[in-house]
Amino acid sequence: MHPFKPAHRGIPPRTAQRRYTRLFPGVYIDPAAPVTPLVKARAAWLWADGACVLTGISAAAVHGARWLPGEAPAEVAVGRVVRVRGLVAHRDRIHPRDITDRLGMRVTSPARTAFDLARRHEPDTAICHIDALCRATDLAPNALLDLAGALRATPGAARLRALAGLVDPGAESPRETVLRLLLLRAGLPRAVTQFVVRDARGRFIGRTDLAWPRWRVAIEYEGSHHFTDPEQARRDAERGNRLMRAGWRVVRVTAPMMQRPDLIIEEVRAALRAAGGC
């Protein structure tokens, strides 16, 4: 069963209110269905009867970006003032070239979506979202610079230009993005994301979250499942042993360590120096 039950498409309002959860006026959802950013995006599209363009977090969700905040409201661009709870309506003028069709809905292009994320969120949050957007699409960081140049007279273009150089599609989680930014701002060389390590014969050894191949130093970010899942713990241990046999130094970073950034920087800097780096 499709989770959406728009009241204006055949369900009496009282019946809809009794059996379903209301998302927007005239749009209801099965109470058992999770309300994800993508679900909110489609609900907003239905509420507007398609007379809108999905933007920001909603557009990113439609493009397949992961790790988006579940509590974020749906975002649309419309040509009128709208006051609907749980919906943010922007009165943006979006050029047709920056609009595309996806999943049967009109959304901002990946590049335009990145621009909106950059100008409407704090820098680190924006980079986390844009990293995920780039990973889900074919959007390249260089395209963000091109868009910033094309929109140079538009408020927010300078923000996009400043953030473009920090974007990396290799990040596999917001935590990895935050960790990468922490090390960059500490003055450490830029790491390679998702680096594949091979032996002298080209055989696969392992893939690291962040790496400095020149010095054979790697960082592995390990969330809680790395410790609670026995199979994951086994794979981590075996990969770590293979990396060490190949002459790599591995710094393991856990979620609690993220509360002590100075400690992380100290550990990584020490590993790089021991390997002949900075």
UniProtKB/TrEMBL annotation:
Q: Spell out the InterPro entries in the cross-references.
A: Restrct_endonuc-II-like (IPR011335)
Q: Which Gene3D superfamilies match?
A: VSR Endonuclease
Superkingdom field: Bacteria
The name of this protein is DUF559 domain-containing protein
Q: Please give the organism.
A: Lolliginicoccus lacisalsi
